[in-house]
Fold each of these.
Amino acid sequence: MEAERRQDHEHDERVILLGPDDNVVVVRRRIDAGSLVRIGGRDVSQPKDIPLGHKLASRSIRRGEKIIKYGAPIGSATADIGPGEHVHVHNMKSDYTATHTLDEARARHGDVP
């Protein structure tokens, strides 16, 4: 019960920390652009909409550091990530499967928007 109260104070109700050693929280309710989100005891403004199921950094994550979710590594940061920042294919890569984006496909085919 104490851990639940502490998490409620540390993190916004729209996100959940799945494991005590995780460095990301998971969005459990869509976050609209411009919203303040409490992450790790501090309020962070979100510049873009964050969809359900996406991740936000619960603390600073350095380039090359493992992204930890459910207590297990799910990939590595490809750039430094600040607390509360969206963690997705633009700043992390899977260490297990290829990460594909439309930008990579466009670049291969010379189709630049």
Note: The CA atoms of residues 31 and 50 lie 5 Å apart.
Amino acid sequence: MPDDAQDEITFVYEDADTVPTITATGAHGGPSPDGASVVANLYVERSSIPHHVSHQIDETGQVDLSEQVTRGELTREVQASLVMTPEHAMQLGRWLQRNARQAMEQREQTFS
């Protein structure tokens, strides 16, 4: 390394005005058709809610709430989509695993 080369670099992190904090319980996606990118659609999984519900009103004016119309058992609501190079996806995967292990160890220490 030349004598005038730096041996340290500092990164500054700043949030854009529109950075949301999201919850993700899973992801769906995969390689792009040309293999240049990996796509991860981050979603939250929850019980489905009906698109609409109609109830009968009997002759006394009471609403019969027994009938329920559903759209399906579960909904996966996409919160954000990540598009990255395969190399960045690998780096992110390693970072997530390392931090997940640390979080699990901390949780175990906290609750045991």
Note: Helices lie at 86-111.
Amino acid sequence: MRPEEVAADEPLFGLSSRFGLDSMDTLRFISELHERYGLDIASTNTDSFRTLARIVETLDADSAARQAVREPVGEGD
């Protein structure tokens, strides 16, 4: 399957997914994102990974939160 064959809002996991991925697959996927991108999995809801669009939103939000911790407001001015 090519990436362009998966719509951004298509369910990746669960009963409505055409991929046959279950909750254990979701947990493995989240763990992989933690390993690769440092995703804070302690504050992550598994619903954040139902679609590609939600995954991108979650990773962007996590990255922005980590960046805000590293660069407190007013420090770079």
Note: Residues 47 and 54 are 8 Å apart (CA to CA).
Amino acid sequence: MRRSFVMGANHAHGPAIPASRRTVWLTLAVIIPLALGTVIGLIALWPSDKPGAGAAPGLERLTGTITSITLKPCPELPPKRASPRAPSSRLRIRPPAATPRSG
């Protein structure tokens, strides 16, 4: 005796129902502009290797080295909002390299 099982939620593996021409065009009308916008955004926002790119005028860029990180108890702990230990760190900031100005 052979039993057949019917799967629910239309999981049949028969032929797919063809989409109407209007549905295909509407889907393409949404997807193509989104894809173009994504590519344009990637090109426009891609980081550059130029020094100072994206820096605000008048700001000085400093570099530094983390010399130590120490976990200390927090002074007061709000309920279920913060970790029981707060990080504390020390930095050594190097002075900016002398750059000749032309003008």
Note: The chain has a mean pLDDT of 74.
